[in-house]
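Bump. Still looking for Mandelate racemase/muconate lactonizing enzyme family protein structure tokens.
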Amino acid sequence: MAKSLATARQTTIVVVETRSGVTGIGEAWGMPAVNQAYLPLLASYLEGSDLADVELVFSRILARHYHFGVQNQMMACISGIDIAAKDALGKEIGLPVCRLIGGRGSEHVPVYASGGYITEDNARDFTPQLEAIAAGKHRAVKIKIGLGPASDLARVREARHVLGEDIDLMVDINSNYSLDLAKHTLAALAPHRIGWVEEPLAPQDIAGYEVLQRCSPVPVATGEALYTVHDFQRLLERRAVDVVQPDLSLCGGFWQGRRIADLAELHHVRLSPHVWGSGIGLAAAAHYVASRSPSPQAQDAPWPTLVEYDVGANPLREQLFKQPLVAKDGLLPVPPGPGLGIELDWSAVEKYALR
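Sorry for the wait, here they are.
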């Protein structure tokens, strides 16, 4: 991304086990060592609780430890535990998670291909990435920009050249710009029919987002670095965004994810969950989107709710499952089995586990 180059991925797998032997799996964003440090504290509240009561326990934890705040790794841990608890509960009663949290509105959810990454050699690497995306027949695509207005325009022009004019094209700045720079680059990009600009500003700059949303010729999206419905409330009550992007692995799992989606619906703002980790988070996002109607639309949604589908090489998505989740022609199947409907290959987990 524009802020830095990454050489590895990491995330934390969470396992919940019931006394009857049912297990559920979830994903907590962030470094496993930091997440594990919170385990004794959280376990002291959760062990012995009923699966259906975990949200009450989470509320108790936050009330008791209010000095911790919510923008921290503890909330990521709670997120992973919540996803795992919903997976286990679904398995216990024989229902997919989407039906536990709202219903099964579809057998497939639309995705956008997240790619076009910034590399050490953009001149060599960018076009082949776009060509691979085109070969995948994706209907919506997001590329990385944020290296300056001239670079942004060149990357968007190349994306349009390779992908065509019919593709919905989004761009992601990863909060690398100040307000004036964001205004400048969006004015240049607007003629290329950009679906949204993601994280043009720092996540904490709510006032800046409010100003930008008022003047931007491109819809503004953000939310992957926000925690709980309270962060999103500050953004939405000022009408500072057009698309909210909660990440279930850090925002508070389905517990807070449902509240965020309800809040967005009340403000008539679009939803599109961020996914950047393992296939567990992808499965959770698929159930999340399948459980909701694309309000205010009924059956015909001009811009459907999209799940982020990273097309970069990612063994944590491609190799951890016995049957990986794979998008085809812009659609991702919602796993039909109980819980999340996924099964980990524990030998693959062992292969990639940190030592």
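Residues 103-338 form a domain with the TIM Barrel fold (CATH 3.20.20.120).

Edit: fixed formatting.
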